[in-house]
Design goal:
Ribosomal Protein L4, Chain: A, alpha/beta, 2 domains
Length: 206
Amino acid sequence: MKQVVINLDGAEQGNIDLNDDLFGLEPRADILHRMVQYQLAKRQAGTHKTKSRSEIARTGKKFGKQKGGGGARHGSRRAPIFVGGGQAHGPRVRSHAIDLPKKIRALAFKHALSAKVKAGELAILSEATTAGKTKELQAQFVKLGWNNVLVVDGVEVDTSFARAAKNIDNVDVLPVQGANVYDILRRKQLVLTKNAVEALEARFNG
């Protein structure tokens, strides 16, 4: 399919052919949902933990008589029923990651790109470079109608562009290796540079 290439001033810079196997699929919400779940679960630290009764530094000596005390027959102050005792069934250090086949992850990425094309939320930029500062770049984004945008560049992101975009709200800039389904879907507008398109097509068709 053909897609218009623009620069940051909004001027057309010709056309580019997008691979239908990468940008022309019929998006499937179930695959995208599985991928987002996979990403969010994988990035959880899983370091939450409470102490069980065996880890509490309190005496285990029976503190009352078995009979005649008028209360329950407790044998340890470490029991979860007491204040300062162990936590029953508390969280443990663990990995929250779930399995998802590599082919499904690759397919989800293609569906994410195709979803942006179908929604009319994909733009191709000739190059992501700027000599200006944040204010000037923000003005260019406003002119283009990009108020919630992910910009994906080639193997390396232009340092000046990344620095200028850093303090603009709801704007993310990533190299092509860092592009992922979650970040693509969480921003309304996806902007790929020509270098990014070439890298992505080489990556999935190589």
